[in-house]
Design brief:
Elements: E1 2-7, H1 10-18, E2 27-29, E3 40-41, H2 43-46, H3 56-62, E4 67-69, H4 73-88, E5 94-98, E6 101-105, H5 110-113, H6 116-131, E7 135-140, H7 143-150, E8 158-160, H8 166-172, H9 183-191, H10 197-200, H11 205-212, H12 214-223, E9 239-250, H13 253-274, E10 276-287, E11 292-303, H14 306-318, E12 326-334, E13 337-338, H15 351-372, H16 384-387
Parallel strand pairs: 2-4, 7-8
Antiparallel strand pairs: 1-6, 1-7, 2-3, 5-6, 9-12, 10-11, 10-12, 10-13
Length: about 400
């Protein structure tokens, strides 16, 4: 049996934990920017129809009494680490899939905890005791069913789908509740006359794959109660990125470059913290009509230098001709590898030595920041009211 744990309204719950005055109130985590979206909503706010990813202005219309709190991602990561440490005290087979959820394989734990249900109750109690927050838990024979089960009795719930109940449960399960089925996929399924996983089972897997690609193949497996994906304790980081929705649309590359510079600082600092170097850099732009543009390049050598990442991102930006007004700008690094893997040095180019020096400079800056605070060392371009960029999302 697999356990899926999902923290209840995680960001909003952390804000209430740290500020008891918010207890019982409708709390929205976000900003008051005209384009801000709700990062998390407390259950009190959800009763008014507020949900995550909803524009904040719309959420405040639905729930005028809501208290809007600025996100504190560092604090959320800190609490998340405490939760995951708690889970790993129960089993070595813990797979963290996001900042507030994880899978736990209960294999070999029956004698220790008296079965999966008792184990889940002990996990819920331990998380509440150590962190002070509630969570919802689902138990099922496979991962996708455990994830669905954890959402059945929120908040602070515990739901079990036993092996003998799987067929009946799947026959009635709406496809809209299956992980990975977004709005577009759901519309395609509706056009095929499919509303439940029971109806999916009647379709040949090959036909589903023609209409839905790899999702069709997965749905065919799920409809038969099959999900062979194991609980993987270590999930390698594939990329690190940062993006920001602008207050006003702009096609001014000088303004966009400033945001790329700040984002490069964030991405590079995360690379150094994780002991990684990046082989590729990518940028993401979204126009006012929500069209998305992406560009990517490969670095001449893996790097964890903000200067090097920024130079690559800036060049990608400059390559855009007739750039439309942009509402969102982001950049990231991919092709991540361990920083201690050997690197081939160039015999002819002096640029590599320059990039290596930048890495040393930035490592020294990291030590200053760690001792004296985040804003003690910043690129001159980002200092002062005019250069300062507001917080982004990662």
């Amino acid at each position: 049996m697999i356990i899926h744990l999902d923290m209840d309204a995680f960001f909003a719950s952390v804000e209430k934990l740290d500020n008891p005055e918010l207890a019982g109130k409708c709390v929205l985590v976000g900003s008051l920017s005209p384009r801000a979206v709700v990062a998390a909503a407390s259950y009190e706010a959800r009763r008014f129809g507020v949900r995550s990813a909803m524009p904040v202005y719309r959420a405040r219309k639905l729930c005028p009494q809501a208290v809007v709190v600025a996100p504190r991602h560092g604090r959320y990561r800190q609490v998340s680490d405490q939760v995951m440490t708690c889970l790993r005290s129960f089993s070595p087979l813990v797979e963290q899939v996001s900042i507030d959820e994880a899978f736990i394989d209960t294999s070999g734990c029956d004698r220790l905890y008296g079965g999966p249900v008792r184990m889940a109750r002990k996990i819920k109690a331990a998380v509440f005791e150590k962190v002070g927050l509630t969570c919802s838990v689902g138990i099922a024979p496979c991962k996708f069913l455990a994830k669905i089960a954890s959402d059945l009795k929120k908040p602070d719930g515990l739901s079990v789908i036993r092996s003998g109940q799987v067929d009946d449960f799947l026959a009635r399960l709406p496809v809209s509740q299956v992980p990975g089925v977004g709005a577009k996929a759901y519309k395609r399924l509706q056009r095929l006359g499919i509303e439940t996983l029971g109806q999916v089972k009647k379709w040949p897997p090959g036909v589903l794959e023609e209409h839905l690609g790899s999702l069709g193949r997965r749905l065919a497996m799920f409809s038969r109660g099959r999900d062979d994906s194991p609980v993987t304790p270590v999930r390698p980081v594939k990329s690190i990125s940062r993006e920001k929705t602008l207050l006003r649309d702009t096609s001014d590359k000088h303004i966009l470059a400033k945001h790329l510079l700040e984002q490069a600082q964030f991405v590079a600092r995360n690379l150094r913290t994780r002991g990684l170097r990046a082989e590729t850099v990518f940028i993401k732009l979204k126009s006012g009509d929500f069209r998305q543009y992406t560009r990517q390049c490969r670095l001449d050598r893996p790097s964890q230098s903000a200067n090097r990442l920024y130079q690559a991102a800036r060049q990608l930006l400059e390559n855009f001709d007739n750039l439309p007004p942009v509402r969102l700008v982001g950049m990231g690094a991919g092709g991540l590898r361990d920083q201690f893997l050997p690197r081939q040095e160039s015999l002819f180019s002096s640029r590599h030595g320059c990039h290596g020096k930048w890495e040393k400079v930035e490592q020294a800056a990291d030590r200053v920041i760690k001792r004296f605070g985040r804003d003690t060392v910043r690129p001159a371009t980002l200092t002062g009211p005019a250069g300062r960029c507001s917080k982004s999302s990662d």
